[in-house]
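User: What would this chain look like folded?
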Amino acid sequence: MSEISRIAYYLALIGGILLVIFGLLSLIGYAVSYFGPFISFSFAYFGIVAIICGIIAIIGAKSVTTIVWAIVLIIIGIIGGGLGGLLVIFGGLIGLIAVLIKKT
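Assistant: Here's the prediction, encoded as structure tokens.
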């Protein structure tokens, strides 16, 4: 595993863990307010989606150096949103770059 692949793996893994943590916090009522102090995104739908996306990101982090999983992680990061989703997107993008560099 090259250094760039390892960075992609760690970014996707940490992002997936953060998605699961923020999803669990959202389910128990301590959601992070994304839109300001008066409108919070703290209903159960976000928590469930974030947990599912986090679990998929944690599972897919091992295979971030394959082109299919890199694209899946980018999509999962977009759906998951937040800080964890951003890290998953960066991990997927770096994994995609690693795959494309390896093929040339």
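Residues 3-103 form one domain. If you want, I can go into more detail on any region.
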